[in-house]
Write a sequence for this structure.
C-alpha cells in the first residue's frame, strides 16, 4: 500500500496537466476540421463531435450552441441521424444545467428520431438520460422504468457499456429506496460482467460503488477492501480525481468505523489532490468532512476552523447546499463549546437556506435543532414555538408524501403535453424543411440537366465543326488533284499539237504545189 501511494503521487502532476491540454487540443482540432470538411454530412458530424467534446469539459452552454448548429445543418440536408444526435446532446447538456423539463423534451424528441431509424444504440442512451430527468426530480419509479428500457435496447444492440451504465442507475434507484441489500446484490453481479469486459474505468466505478454499499451496510472491512481496489484501478488509469475520490471514501469508512486518525490521514491526501487539480467543490466538501472528524473526537475548535474554510470555498463557487451544510456543522460545533448564541445564529441561517434550496427537510431539521438550542438557553416559549412548527411541518410532509404520486403523474402529463406541442412544431418545421429541400433539389436538378444538355450540344457542335473541317480538307485536296491532272492533260495536248504541226506541211507549201499542178496539167 505504501509503494502504491508513492507511485500514485508521482503521476498526479502529469495527469492533471495532460487531461486538460488534450481535451482543449481535441476541441481545437475539431474546429479546424469543420472548416476543412468537404461534405455536408461530414460537417454535421464534426459539429456533433464538437458539441460532445464541450460536454465532456462540462461547458454546457457551448455544447448546446453547437448541438443547435448541428441540428440546423442536419435539417438542411435531411440527415435524420444528425438531427437525433443533436437533440440527444442538447438534452444531456440541459441535465448538467439542472434544466430537467427542457432536457426531457429534447431527449424524447431524439428518441422519436432514433425509433424511426431503428437505432437501438442511441435509443438505449436516450432512455437512460430520460431516466435521469425523472431521477433528479425524485420520480424514482418512472426513472427505473426508463433505465430498464435502456438495458433492453442495450441488450438488443449488444452494447455492453450501455448495459453496465444503465444497470448502475438501477443500483442507484435501489439505494434511494434504501434497499441496500438488493443494490449490493445487483452491484456484485455487475462487477462480474465488468471484469469480463476488461474496462479499467468501469471496474473502478463498480468497485467504488460496492465499497459505498458496504459502508451503508456497516461492513467496514469489505468497504475498505473495495475502496482500495478502486484506488488501485484509478492509479492504473492515472485518474487523479478517481484517486482523490478513493482516498475520500476510505477516509469516510474510517470515520464511520471510529478510526479518526486514519480518517484524517486519507482525507488530507484527498484534500491535497483536489487543491492541486482545482476541484473546488470536493475541496470544500473534504474540509467539511474533516470538521466532522474533529467534532466526533470532541475537538469543536478545530471543527469550526475547517467548516469555516468549507463555507468560504462553497461561497466562492456559489454552492448553496454546501453553504447550508456548513451553517449546520458550525451550529453543532458552537453548541458543543456551549456558545449557544452563535449556535442559534448559524442554525437560523441554515433554516433560511431551506427557502432558496426549496428543501422542506432542511426546514424540519432546523426547527427541531432550534427548539433544542432555545430550550438549553432557557427560552421555553421560543423552544415551544419551534417545536410546534416542527410538528406542523412534519405532518405536512407526511400528507405531501401521499400526494406525491398525484404530483408526479401531473408532472408527467405536463411533460407529455410539452412533448406533443414540441413534436407538432417539429413536424411543421420538418415539413417546411422538406418543402424547401424539394425546391432546392428541383432547382439543383434543373440546373444540372440544363448544364448537361448544354455540354451535349457543345460537344455535338464541336464534332460537326471538326467533321466539316475534315471534309473541306478532303475537297480541297481533291480539287487540287483535279487541277493538277487538268494541267497535265492540257500540257500533253499542246505538246502533241506542236509535234503534229512540225510533221504536217504548211498551207503555203500545199498552195504552191497546187498552183504548179494547175499550171502544168499534162504532168498529171
Amino acid at each position: 500500500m505504501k509503494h502504491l501511494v508513492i507511485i500514485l503521487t508521482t503521476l498526479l502532476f502529469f495527469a492533471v496537466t495532460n487531461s486538460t491540454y488534450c481535451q482543449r487540443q481535441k476541441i481545437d482540432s475539431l474546429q479546424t476540421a469543420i472548416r476543412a470538411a468537404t461534405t455536408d454530412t461530414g460537417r454535421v458530424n464534426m459539429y456533433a463531435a464538437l458539441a460532445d467534446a464541450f460536454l465532456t469539459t462540462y461547458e454546457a452552454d457551448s455544447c448546446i450552441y453547437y448541438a443547435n448548429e448541428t441540428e440546423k445543418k442536419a435539417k438542411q440536408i435531411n440527415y435524420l441521424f444528425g438531427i437525433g444526435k443533436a437533440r440527444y446532446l442538447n438534452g444531456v447538456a440541459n441535465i448538467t444545467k439542472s434544466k430537467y423539463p427542457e432536457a426531457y423534451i429534447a431527449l424524447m424528441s431524439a428518441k422519436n428520431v432514433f425509433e424511426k431509424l431503428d437505432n437501438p444504440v442511441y435509443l438505449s442512451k436516450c432512455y437512460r438520460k430520460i431516466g435521469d430527468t425523472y431521477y433528479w426530480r425524485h420520480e424514482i419509479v418512472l426513472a427505473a422504468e426508463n433505465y430498464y428500457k435502456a438495458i433492453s435496447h442495450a441488450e438488443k444492440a449488444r452494447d455492453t457499456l450501455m448495459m453496465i451504465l444503465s444497470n448502475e442507475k438501477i443500483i442507484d434507484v435501489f439505494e434511494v429506496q434504501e434497499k441496500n441489500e438488493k443494490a449490493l446484490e445487483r452491484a456484485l453481479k455487475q462487477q462480474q460482467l465488468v471484469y469480463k469486459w476488461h474496462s479499467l474505468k468501469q471496474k473502478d466505478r463498480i468497485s467504488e460503488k460496492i465499497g459505498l454499499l458496504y459502508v451503508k451496510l456497516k461492513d467496514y472491512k469489505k468497504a475498505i477492501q473495495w475502496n482500495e481496489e478502486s484506488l488501485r484501478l484509478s492509479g492504473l488509469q492515472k485518474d487523479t480525481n478517481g484517486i482523490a475520490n478513493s482516498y475520500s471514501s476510505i477516509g469516510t469508512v474510517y470515520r464511520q468505523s471510529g478510526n479518526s486518525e486514519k480518517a484524517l490521514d486519507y482525507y488530507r491526501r484527498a484534500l491535497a489532490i483536489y487543491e492541486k487539480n482545482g476541484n473546488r467543490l470536493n475541496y470544500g466538501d473534504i474540509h467539511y468532512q474533516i470538521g466532522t472528524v474533529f467534532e466526533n473526537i470532541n475537538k469543536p475548535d478545530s471543527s469550526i476552523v475547517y467548516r469555516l474554510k468549507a463555507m468560504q470555498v462553497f461561497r466562492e463557487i456559489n454552492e448553496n447546499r454546501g453553504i447550508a451544510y456548513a451553517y449546520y456543522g458550525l451550529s453543532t460545533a458552537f453548541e458543543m463549546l456551549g456558545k449557544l448564541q452563535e449556535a442559534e445564529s448559524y442554525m437560523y441561517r441554515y433554516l433560511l437556506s431551506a427557502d432558496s434550496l426549496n428543501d422542506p427537510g432542511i426546514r424540519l431539521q432546523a426547527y427541531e435543532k432550534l427548539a433544542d438550542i432555545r430550550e438549553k438557553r432557557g427560552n421555553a416559549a421560543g423552544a415551544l414555538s419551534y417545536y410546534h412548527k416542527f410538528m406542523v411541518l412534519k405532518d405536512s410532509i407526511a400528507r405531501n408524501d401521499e400526494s406525491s404520486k398525484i404530483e408526479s403523474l401531473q408532472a408527467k402529463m405536463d411533460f407529455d403535453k410539452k412533448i406533443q406541442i414540441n413534436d407538432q412544431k417539429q413536424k411543421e418545421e420538418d415539413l417546411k424543411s422538406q418543402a424547401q429541400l424539394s425546391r432546392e433539389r428541383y432547382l439543383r436538378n434543373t440546373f444540372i440537366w440544363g448544364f448537361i444538355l448544354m455540354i451535349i450540344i457543345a460537344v455535338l457542335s464541336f464534332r460537326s465543326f471538326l467533321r466539316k473541317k475534315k471534309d473541306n480538307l478532303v475537297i480541297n485536296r481533291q480539287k487540287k488533284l483535279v487541277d493538277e491532272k487538268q494541267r497535265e492533260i492540257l500540257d500533253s495536248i499542246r505538246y502533241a499539237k506542236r509535234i503534229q504541226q512540225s510533221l504536217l506541211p504548211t498551207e503555203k507549201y500545199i498552195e504552191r504545189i497546187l498552183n504548179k499542178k494547175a499550171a502544168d496539167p499534162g504532168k498529171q
Summary: Confidence is low (pLDDT under 50) at residues 1-23. The longest helix spans residues 380-503.
